[in-house]
Amino acid sequence: MVLSHIGHTDNFLQMASSSGQLSHQSSFWKNMKEFPPVIDGRIHFVSFLEAANDLISLVERLGKVFVPVKYDMQGNIDKVKKHYQYDEASCLLELMLDEYSRGKLNALEGILWLNRAFLFFELAFQEIIKCLQSGNYDINMAKIFTVAYEGSVKKYHNWVTQQIFFFICKMSPSLLQLLKSLEVDSDMKTFETKLVQFNITLHLNRCKIDDFFKDHQLFED
Q1: In 10 A of CB 29, how many CB atoms?
Q2: Distance between CA 167 and CA 180 in Å, rounded?
Q3: With 0-12 CB in 10 A as exposed, 13-18 as middle and 19+ as buried, what is 196?
Q4: How far apart are alpha carbons 145 and 125 in whole angstroms?
Q5: Share of the chain above pLDDT 70, in %
Q6: Which pLDDT tens digit goes with each residue over 177-190?
Q7: How far apart are CA 13 and CA 94, in angstroms?
Q8: pTM for the structure as a whole
Q9: Tens-digit pLDDT profile for residues 68-80
Q10: Closest CA to 144 of 162, 169, 111
Q11: DSSP class per residue in the chain
Q12: Quick check: 114 and 80 in contact, CB under 8 A?
């Protein structure tokens, strides 16, 4: 079931600002881990997994209609963890290179699809950030998710899967419902700053992974 309707922007902001609990508790979005920085061509694997799992937790808060997306992303993470032996110092790209050098593609395929999902959310977050910056909280999230879908994973899906995903986009929560589900209080500017930084690190990780696939001519479109 999609999250319940919140109402007008002013009502939402008044409700958030009047809630003492929201202002004193640690909100979900404040605890979301950003993707690790790319340092000397390395991506810290454990931090990468933590950020990916937090993104899945965000997807879960979009409502039951997004359950297929959640399970797909979680399945790809589970596949990666199953096939990689890692410790606190492990680098994602080094694990990928080791698998590739052994002629294996199991975890690499999981990373590929996970990275395609990252592009979907990166594009969606870009549009949400624009709305926050302009103060337009009444934007149609179905349109945002549809644009993000068409710019990311649509070309990899068959007709049936495309129809399912268009239904998911159509039934997505409004921006105000999304903000409430993420426990955003009246400090929209702080949330905007957090989302911008999260999307930057998501973009940098995604591009580095894409570069790996291009450099090794893997899974070419």
Answers
A1: 20
A2: 22
A3: middle
A4: 9
A5: 88
A6: 889 888 887 788 99
A7: 46
A8: 0.86
A9: 999 999 999 999 9
A10: 169
A11: -PPPP---HHHHHHHHHT-HHHHHS--HHHHPPPPPP-BTTB-BHHHHHHHHHHHHHHHHTT-GGGHHHHHHHHHHHHHHHHH----TT-BHHHHHHHHHHTT--HHHHHHHHHHHHHHHHHHHHHHHHHHHHHT-TT--HHHHHHHHHHTTTGGGS-HHHHHHHHHHHHTPPPHHHHHHHTT--S-HHHHHHHHHHHHHHHHHHHHHHHHHHHHTT-S--
A12: yes
Domains of the chain (ranges plus CATH)? 36-213 (1.10.3520.10)
Distance of alpha carbon 2 from the chain centroid: 18
DSSP assignment of 178-199:
HHHHTT--S-HHHHHHHHHHHH
Spatial contact of 26 and 190, defined as CB atoms under 8 Å apart: no
For 157: left if phi > 0, alpha if psi spans -120 to 50, otherwise beta; the answer is: beta
Q: Spell out the long-range contacts of 75-79 with Cβ–Cβ below 8 A and sequence spacing 24 or more.
A: 75/110, 76/110, 76/111, 76/113, 76/114, 76/117, 77/49, 77/52, 77/53, 77/110, 77/114, 78/110, 79/106, 79/107, 79/109, 79/110
